């Protein structure tokens, strides 16, 4: 990924576009944030326009009125600081489990990026305080439920804004939850007294759903490469043919992702002595769909990921707020806070993740079934009947696949009107993002089970004198064993093996081991 804004471990926020890598560097890598002088000047200029409007007698939404269905009331100047405080306090109404630290850091950084654009009309002080909080390792407590994905991720962002005010709860650098005011005091950060429009500007954005989309795109990019590797290992263990991966076959159906997945699998299988040698007692003209069509399914997911990345990049370039200060000084209301563009691709990715897991499970089941595995022992057991082998590992995998199918039901097709019918159509993008995170975690586990099965099957082939493994799959097998994924043998406590496989897959260990032989995979 492009790291153009990361300099000496710092992410510079200013006129240059923020990249996906910048967001991940802050969310997961704790990169420090610096606001450019140009951005601070732009913010000061747009703030002057808000101050001018605040002095006028006419009502301006977000500056001198209430919010949502209460925007009909004009608020006198002495009450406007209270208006902003009340907005943040009342909207910090989340419930349920606390969301992950990386999600909160991502959404705060993305809101900071929009503040620094100069389009929101907040004072530079607000952005500088938000940067200071992130740099101090202070993370607001944000709850699972509260956003409808329209008018911004209101409740999640309000919990973050509450921390800027020195109120509510937050995690300290040590991971302990404490009153935010105490944490700010220890870090030498002065809480912000919000002025006109600033409370609204802090909470009116798609930052939560966008942050989770960017994190998911990064994780899925690694998992799609992982799926190509595990599919290749299963093909090899099943004595399948690699001829279906030839580039000329994929050139005549030119979906880019399909071609990339096929090329990955072909690289992984190069030099194998097992592929293409069908057994005499079970002759095959063609392999089963779950093996033969692996590039088509994974490739469709890759193309979906490409589309999602395009949407994410466009949203990253946006300044989402309402109203906004335009470059010519006009302050205009708009509907850019609606999360539909992001919500749709979040749902689309959940569908792709569910199907990729589904085809991986079918390959695992084939490896375990003596009637379809072409000479492998039932359930890859050491002494079938006395030992059960990987029988129940496939049950676990099937349960995860089934859950991912349920999580693939789109959230973005739903809408519940809110704010006395003023906000009568919402995106549910936050909900789409939350379920996608679960889908991604489940997919890593599903692929970990396929890796466990295919690695054991390959080792059995080697132990029984079959042809040599491809150098890349041999490297994958060795790395999996080194990571704690056990091989064939009598039954043992299996959960630790599967946990080790999950960590190995999710952390990118499998891809790294294979790329050490093949060079970079797509």
UniProtKB/TrEMBL annotation:
Keywords: Cytoplasm, Histidine metabolism, Lyase. It catalyses: L-histidine = trans-urocanate + NH4(+). PROSITE patterns: PAL_HISTIDASE (PS00488). It is found in: Cytoplasm. Pathway: Amino-acid degradation; L-histidine degradation into L-glutamate; N-formimidoyl-L-glutamate from L-histidine: step 1/3. Contains an active site 4-methylidene-imidazol-5-one (MIO), which is formed autocatalytically by cyclization and dehydration of residues Cys-Ser-Gly. The keyword tRNA processing does not apply. PANTHER family: HISTIDINE AMMONIA-LYASE. Belongs to the PAL/histidase family. NCBIfam families: hutH, PRK09367.1. This is Histidine ammonia-lyase. It comes from Streptacidiphilus alkalitolerans.
């Amino acid at each position: 990924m492009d790291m153009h804004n990361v300099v000496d471990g710092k992410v510079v926020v200013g006129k240059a576009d923020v990249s996906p890598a910048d967001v991940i560097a802050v969310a997961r890598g704790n990169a420090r944030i610096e606001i450019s002088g140009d951005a601070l000047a732009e913010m000061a200029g747009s703030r002057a326009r808000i101050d001018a409007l605040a002095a006028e007698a006419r009502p301006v939404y977000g500056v001198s009125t209430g919010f949502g269905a209460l925007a009909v009331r004009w608020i006198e100047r002495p009450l406007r600081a209270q208006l902003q405080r009340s907005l943040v306090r009342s909207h910090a109404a989340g419930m349920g489990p606390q969301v992950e630290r990386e999600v909160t850091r991502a959404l705060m950084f993305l809101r900071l990026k929009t503040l620094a654009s100069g389009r929101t009309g907040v004072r530079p002080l607000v952005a500088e305080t938000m940067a200071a909080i992130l740099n101090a390792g202070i993370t607001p407590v944000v709850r699972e439920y509260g956003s409808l994905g329209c008018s911004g991720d209101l409740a999640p962002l309000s919990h973050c804004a509450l921390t800027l005010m020195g109120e509510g709860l937050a995690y300290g650098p040590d991971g302990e939850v404490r009153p935010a005011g105490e944490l700010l005091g220890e870090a030498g950060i002065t809480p912000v007294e919000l002025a006109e429009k600033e409370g609204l500007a802090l909470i009116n954005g798609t930052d939560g759903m966008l942050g989770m989309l960017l994190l998911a795109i990064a994780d899925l990019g690694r998992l799609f490469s992982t799926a190509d590797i595990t599919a290749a290992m299963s093909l090899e263990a099943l004595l399948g043919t690699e001829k279906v991966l030839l580039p000329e076959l994929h050139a005549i159906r030119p979906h880019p992702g399909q071609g990339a997945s096929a090329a990955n699998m072909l690289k992984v299988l190069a030099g194998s002595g097992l592929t293409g040698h069908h057994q005499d007692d079970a002759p095959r003209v063609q392999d089963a769909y779950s093996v033969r069509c692996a590039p088509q399914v994974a490739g469709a997911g890759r193309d979906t990921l490409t589309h999602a990345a395009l949407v994410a990049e466009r949203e990253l370039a946006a300044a989402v707020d309402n109203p906004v200060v335009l470059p010519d000084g006009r302050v205009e209301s708009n509907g850019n806070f609606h999360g539909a563009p992001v919500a749709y691709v979040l749902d689309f990715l959940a569908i792709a993740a569910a199907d990729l897991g589904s085809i991986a499970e079918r390959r695992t089941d084939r490896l375990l079934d003596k009637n379809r595995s072409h000479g492998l022992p039932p359930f890859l057991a050491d002494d079938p009947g006395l030992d059960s082998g990987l029988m129940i590992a496939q049950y676990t995998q099937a349960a995860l696949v089934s859950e991912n199918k349920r999580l693939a039901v789109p959230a973005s097709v739903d809408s519940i009107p809110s704010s006395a019918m003023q906000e009568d159509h919402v995106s549910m993008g936050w909900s789409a993002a939350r379920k996608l995170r679960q889908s991604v975690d489940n997919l890593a586990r599903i692929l970990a089970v396929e890796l466990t099965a295919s690695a054991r099957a390959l080792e059995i082939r080697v132990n029984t004198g079959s042809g040599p493994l491809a150098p890349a799959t041999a490297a994958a097998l060795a790395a999996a064993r080194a990571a704690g994924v056990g091989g064939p043998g009598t039954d043992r406590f299996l959960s630790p093996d599967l946990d080790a496989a999950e960590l190995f897959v999710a952390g990118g260990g499998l891809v790294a081991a294979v790329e050490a032989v093949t060079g970079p995979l797509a």
